[in-house]
Design a protein that fits this description.
The protein is 20% helix and 27% strand. By secondary structure, the chain is an alpha+beta fold. The strands form 2 sheets. Strands 1-2-3-6-7 form a 5-stranded antiparallel beta sheet. The radius of gyration is 16 Å and the shape is globular. Bound molecules: 2,3-dichloro-N-{2-[formyl(hydroxy)amino]ethyl}benzamide and nickel (II) ion.
Amino acid sequence: MILMKDIIREGNPTLRATAKKVSFPLSQEDRDLGKKMMKYLEVSQDEKLAEKYHLRAGVGLAAPQIDVSKRVAAVLVPDNDGSIVFKDVLYNPRILRESVKRAALNEGEGCLSVDRNVAGLVIRTDRITLEYYDVNGERHEIKLENYPAIVVQHEIDHLNGTLFYDHIDKESPFKLPENTIIIE
Ligand SMILES: O=CN(O)CCNC(=O)c1cccc(Cl)c1Cl
Ligand code: NI
């Protein structure tokens, strides 16, 4: 089971590397990788289990965060009544289209690999068309918007060596650019 000790932090070069694509059919190792990353998210979102295993909650996890430089990310986005908005393990995810409209989470973003709060608006695209392959090698092309779209962008950033605070305006972190909505 993935624990906090397995999560690499700022300073580890893997976090700034460009991760490699996986090939299909997936090796057992790459299947297991996706499974254990999703398991981390499920456990981390269960208050009792998260406390028991001292896990920081996450709605996404990218393989580079456990020092595996492969283009694999798990995403588990609940909505506030506990149902699931989006859940899947993304293999070789790729953003095909981005809306002109930008978006930022009101409360900013956090990252398991960043042991500090970095305040400010993380400016991202509001709507994306995402291509990815699932564990069975099936191609998916889906449209996401708002919160799930933001989370997927945070994870794909990890595959490209980008961290959330790279998108925060250093001079005025809370400036709201034109054409940008705030997501509560
Ligand atoms: O890369 C994944 N993590 O670092 C897991 C911890 N962060 C989050 O769950 C998180 C929190 C706020 C906004 C976004 Cl977009 C995300 Cl992703
Ligand atoms: Ni992160």
